[in-house]
Specification:
4-stranded parallel beta sheet; DNA-binding; disordered C terminus; Rossmann fold; alpha/beta; homodimer
Chain lengths: 348, 348
DNA sequence: AGTTTTGATGAAAACGTTTACGTTCCGCCG
DNA sequence: CGGCGGAACGTAAACGTTTTCATCAAAACT
């Protein structure tokens, strides 16, 4: 509107007070009479004054911004996560600086470094971070919380979804539904989530079907690898009665392999996935899966981070876990569905 | 690592030069001998010096950050858009400040205002912005580009996807495939995209099937509204041969309505959508749709914004358009598919 | 009435940079 | 040999805040 942006001095002059008083009024510090307060507010409004955040940060040392560094993530997961973080951040009056799509250690390190000084805290989700990474790239005084990470460093709390309990629950459900043999399609070797889910599978099998042989085939989270895994399973001498894939995309790939081979799902073989991606609802048969509220994950991360920033940090439980829920749909054979009147799924 | 963060003074002392020289070296301004340069670099490295961005912004007036304010968007669209922007921004050495999930004018206005001073430019996607909004909430000297907006203000260039051409092409395709009558499921009344797509539908029909009567039913972009629209269409005296929904979710809803009624797709009625969301590939029959590279949209927006920021903001063509492509799948009846060997869809 | 307490206010320092301007030194030309 | 130009470098001002401290008046005590 005006040609030059107004500074605190302009406001002070306009209101006939000192800049100190302006600062006090605008920051609600008290120690000002109602009249000066009114005068300052009026002047500020008239001049469209907005405090310069750079100057403010310089002196206070706070940016009121938190940074999120994320890998090149699968769409839905990404957007839900950001939404959760963003919403919680806004509620706390914080801004969100995002840096995503990192596909290498160096890339992630650069991202973390360039955020230095621009943020009051960080939320990091990256397969590349470990203790060393943090020590080398994070200023020691910068609060950070890790997402979905195996790192157990007391300085950096982490939030994980409860992969093992979720996987365990799903395997239990499959066994309970009457499928005696359950095979598992694994994720990429180095992936933490995959490892945890496999652990859950092993645990459930060991506990509930101790005499059954474990049946684990390789995969890499891609739909195509699920397809290949599906064919591999079909080629086995004794076909499993159910397949539990470490993520939904592989489950879908597997589903296509079965369809192609004329195998009926769930009548001949049941299938279940993990993640509850949007697609799971729309493939046919709709996919039973394990769901985790990703937005909640983001929200929890931010809340934990703000606690850290406010110094309420730590002591004890510095790692939190988010519950996972089994979502029963058609593909596992336990769904009560009136096939005749198939209503549209819930709105997204 | 070190207990206190190093400032430029520390580096100067360590390198036995003045702070001015340190600044010159680190900013590559020249006017320094190779020796001092080396000394400074060594000192900076030893101290793990990182320039304070707040102080830098304060004096230079630049933040090297661009802001994106977005509505509470559909997942996939959102993540793709952010990815496009983020990638392009990083390539230009810019940071990305995100504020999403705004569901009201006041909300969006607040977001824009609080970004003031924190960013060098903004990318705005919001149904609430119009000329007034911008004049009231944007500092006049802050470059901004609008996404998918009807605003035609010379001060704010905008980038739109070519909704009308895309819709036109899809209708043409449906007609060419032999479906004589094409109905249209509209989007929410106030929505710009919806309006443009309707416009494309009208244009194509008027041009290619001038004697056919227009058949437009209401919808609001939700899956459920698509379902209702589908039932409405089935109840018509003379059923259309093809349905073109203003977005994919409605097309999916419509598909379910047809399935429920025992209508075969595409044999009895063809269906097409708009957006090419991930699901489109996975419903059965897979959904023909109009695709636009959302990441490109984000990238273009950022590139345009940086041009503006560098002062290359020229008069004339201040609004750009992004091409849309018809994606032919099974639901429109023109797809050559070997149903016997249905391969898994392309990886995402 | 004199003294202390209280509360509002302003002056000025500090935050860590960039940059305009001086200073110094050296080599070169006249 | 004296002056001059330019390169290298340093000094200090400026950016717009917050915050400490001093000041001062008025109210509250003795």
């Amino acid at each position: 509107m005006t040609t030059k942006k107004a500074t605190i001095k302009d406001v002070a002059r306009e209101a006939k007070v000192s800049i100190a008083s302006v600062s006090r009024v605008l920051n609600g510090l008290g120690g000002v009479t109602a009249e000066t307060q009114a005068a300052v507010r009026k002047a500020a409004a008239r001049l469209h004054y907005v405090p310069d955040s750079a100057a403010r940060s310089l002196i206070t040392g706070r940016t009121h911004t938190i940074g999120a560094v994320l890998p090149d993530l699968y769409g839905e997961f990404f957007s839900e996560l950001i939404r959760g973080i963003d919403l919680a951040a806004r509620a706390k009056g914080l801004h969100l600086l995002v840096s995503s799509s990192h596909d290498g250690v160096e890339d992630a390190a650069a991202a973390v470094r360039t955020m230095r000084g621009r943020v009051d805290g960080m939320i990091i989700l990256s397969e590349f971070v470990d203790g060393d990474f943090l020590d080398h790239n994070l200023p020691s005084d910068l609060p950070a919380v890790l997402l979905d990470s195996p790192v157990d460093n007391p300085r950096y709390p982490s939030i994980n979804m409860d992969n093992v309990a979720g996987a365990q629950a799903m395997v239990k459900h499959l066994l309970d539904t009457g499928h005696a043999s359950v095979a598992f399609i694994n994720g990429p070797a180095g992936n933490y989530d995959a490892q945890q889910r496999e652990k859950g599978y092993r645990a459930a099998m060991g506990q509930l079907a101790p005499k059954a042989k474990l049946n684990i085939v390789a995969g890499d989270f891609s739909e195509e690898s699920g397809y290949r895994a599906g064919r591999e399973l079909l080629a086995q001498a004794k076909r499993p009665r159910a397949v539990f894939a470490a993520n939904d995309m592989m489950a879908v790939g597997c589903l296509y392999a079965f369809k192609e081979a004329g195998i009926r799902v769930p009548e001949d073989i049941a299938i279940a996935g993990f993640d509850d991606i949007l697609i799971a609802r729309y493939v046919s048969p709709s996919l039973s899966t394990v769901s985790v509220s990703i937005a909640d994950l983001g929200k929890s991360a931010l809340l934990l981070l703000t606690e850290l920033m406010e110094g309420k940090g730590h002591a004890g439980s510095n790692t939190r876990t988010l519950r996972c829920d089994v979502v029963v749909r058609e593909s596992c054979g336990a769904h009560q569905t009136n096939v005749a009147t198939k209503h549209p799924p819930a709105l997204v």
